[in-house]
Design goal:
six-stranded antiparallel sheet; metal-binding; Metal Binding Protein, Guanine Nucleotide Exchange Factor, Chain A; EC 1.8.4.12; zinc; alpha+beta; TAT_signal; 4 helices; Mss4-like_sf
Length: 206
Amino acid sequence: MSRIDEVIAADRRRFLRSALAGGVMLAVGGSIALPRLLAAGADSWPPGLIHTTPGSVLLETFADDGRNLGLHRELKLVLTDAQWHQRLSQASFDIMRRRGTERAFSGEHERPAARGIFRCRGCGTALYDDATEFDSGTGWPSFWQPISAHNVVQNRDATLGMERTEIRCARCDSHLGHVFDDGPRPTGLRYCMNSLALHFVPRTAS
């Protein structure tokens, strides 16, 4: 069985277990079943808007040429809903501030032709290096690790009648996607992200 077949089979197993348990129909965000069960491009069930609490956070910063600039304490990005609407498209706002999910295969999920860094579309924080991206066959950008553990945060997500681990940007608290334990080596993890939450920056010459 190929790696893609294994990923699809794992997602189908999650879907069947959820359905048999009497939960809602969707088994996982990032599941192969999601585009077939959702007609809309974003989830309609998440709780209210995400509001970032003022404060500071320790981030690992990276230049566009890939150089690690070290750890720096940065102020959290706190914006009003109106300011977020000015900064983001409606589709990105629904995903990043309302915890929605884009339709599978609707975004730029393939590996880019150039080397570079995926940054948060909301605040520019470095999130993933293209070297860790892989084709999961699910239709969402997938990575086996973030560029730094400092730059993302994990939250328990009990929506949809199941337990998942949500991934958010550490600086602006924007929803990015979820992480699952069916990824490739060396971590065995699959960070399943929304394309509309990411901004790819090609690596510049140092």
